[in-house]
Structures are given as structure tokens and as C-alpha cells.
Specification:
The chain contains nine helices and twelve strands. Helix 5 links the parallel strand 7 and strand 8. The chain starts with a helix and ends with a strand. The strands form three sheets. Strands 5, 6, 7, 8, 9, 10, 11 and 12 form an eight-stranded mixed sheet that branches. The protein has a two-stranded parallel sheet with strand order 1-4. Strands 2-3 form a two-stranded antiparallel ribbon. The chain is elongated.
Length: about 260
């Protein structure tokens, strides 16, 4: 016969396990109502989806964290590709996407629900190899053409930040690189991880020192699924403290991190 304390410990562990299982089942029904976790991604950003030039493997915070969450929920992972983050969030609002990683701005929070902050990033500028622009203080002057991604937070912020510059919207990051090659842009503004990713494909290009802002990155889920936020909060905390987030950032080549909790 088991001692009373041992029996109590076993009973407590079984109750905790049953409770965790019930929480996971409830979260699965809320976060993946179609029986699979539909993860929205777009190319060119380590926050979302980038290709390893050596192995051809696809990584990014949205991809790697999405796969891990799908595994924990015991549902298939489904990757749904878009051209830019604005399209991903529109797809989420339309009910076509269950999960992505995004800059958690108040404007975006009106249409999707965010977890707590995953990490924070510097916002900066990229210039081409032959550019005479050397510092951030050189940017705000007449005639400077500042590229931004169409539908991005930068598109709404930069005109107020740089009233003397001309803001030019690019469809996506690859399009922005082509615009640099045709000398249609002088600089490009977004988060530094994306700028470094672009600079790798532009020989001699430079990410300027300093920053014009900070981006707070979080997991986004559709509105109406707030009942799963506690489960998502625990997932984020475990990703931060257990090394999952750091590993995903390293695989994606994420540079320009200001703070990782």
C-alpha cells in the first residue's frame, strides 16, 4: 500500500496533467478551428519567411514558431504565402489565417489580437553602395526618395518623420531591391532584420547606424479567439525562456534585435 503522501503526489500530478490536456484541447479548438494551423507568411523578412542560401531551407519566426505551436496543438502545419504583411493581416481578418508574427501596433490591434511582446527590434534605413548618405541626419532633406513597403507601418510613419523627403511605396522587399538597381530609391526604411536581409542581396549596401524607432513584435491571432490568450501567453514565455525563440532567430539570421525578453 502506497504511503498517503505518495498517493497524494500522484493524484496531484494526474490532476495537473488532465488539466493541461483539457487546456490544450480547448486551445486547439480555438486556435486551429479548421483542424490545422494556417500560418500566414511573406518572403524577405526573418520575422516571417527567408530562404537559407546554403541549404535552401525555409525559416523565419512565423514559420518556426508556427510549426512548434502546431506540434503542441497536435494539428498539421499549413503555410499560406502572401507578398507582404498587410496581405497576411488582411487574410487573418478574413478568416483565412490562424497565426502570424507581426509588429504589434495599435492600428493593427484594431483588426487582430496580439500576444505579449516576443522581442523588440530597431527600425532603420538602408542605402545602396554608392550612396552619399552617411548618417540618419542626412535623410530628411528635399529630393531624398525613401522606400517603404506598401501597406506597412513605415508607410504611415515615415511621411510624418521625414516631411522633406518623398515616400515611395514598393510592393515587397524584392521589388524594393529592383528599385534600388534602377535608381528609383535613395534609401529604404523598415526594421533592421529585413534591412540586413536586403543588404545581403545588394553588394556594398549599408544599414545606417542608429534608429528612427522601435518595433514591438508579437504573435497575432484573429479577433474573437481571446479565450486562448492564456495558452498563447504560456507558449510565448516557454519560447523565450526555453531557447525556442533564440534558436528560431538564429536560424532565420535575425539581426537588429534591440531586446529579447
Amino acid at each position: 500500500m502506497c504511503p498517503p503522501l505518495v498517493t497524494m503526489a500522484v493524484a496531484t500530478a494526474m490532476a495537473a496533467s488532465a488539466s493541461a490536456g483539457a487546456l490544450a484541447r480547448e486551445a486547439r479548438d480555438i486556435l486551429a478551428p479548421k483542424g490545422r494551423l494556417r500560418v500566414g507568411v511573406y518572403p524577405g523578412s526573418p520575422l516571417s519567411m527567408v530562404e537559407d542560401s546554403r541549404t535552401g531551407e525555409i525559416h523565419g519566426l512565423s514559420v518556426d514558431l508556427g510549426k512548434q505551436l502546431a506540434k503542441r496543438l497536435d494539428v498539421p502545419f499549413e503555410q499560406i504565402n502572401y507578398q507582404r504583411i498587410a496581405e497576411v493581416l488582411a487574410g487573418m481578418k478574413a478568416g483565412d489565417i490562424d497565426f502570424t508574427v507581426s509588429n504589434a501596433t495599435p492600428a493593427r490591434a484594431a483588426n487582430v489580437t496580439f500576444s505579449q511582446t516576443l522581442l523588440s527590434l530597431e527600425l532603420g534605413y538602408l542605402v545602396a553602395a554608392a550612396s552619399p548618405i552617411a548618417t540618419i541626419s542626412d535623410v530628411n532633406r528635399p529630393g531624398i526618395r525613401v522606400g517603404v513597403t506598401q501597406g506597412s507601418t513605415s508607410q504611415g510613419t515615415i511621411p510624418n518623420l521625414l516631411p522633406n523627403a518623398t515616400v515611395v511605396a514598393a510592393q515587397n522587399f524584392m521589388r524594393a531591391i529592383e528599385m534600388f538597381e534602377r535608381r528609383e530609391l535613395d534609401i529604404f526604411a523598415t526594421n533592421k532584420p529585413t534591412l540586413f536581409e536586403m543588404s545581403d542581396q545588394m553588394p556594398g549596401a549599408r544599414v545606417l547606424d542608429g534608429r528612427w524607432g522601435v518595433e514591438y513584435v508579437a504573435i497575432a491571432i484573429p479577433k474573437g479567439r481571446e479565450a486562448a490568450l492564456e495558452y498563447l501567453r504560456r507558449f510565448v514565455e516557454e519560447a523565450q525562456t526555453g531557447g525556442l525563440l533564440a534558436q528560431a532567430a538564429e536560424r532565420a539570421g535575425l539581426r537588429g534585435i534591440l531586446k529579447m525578453p
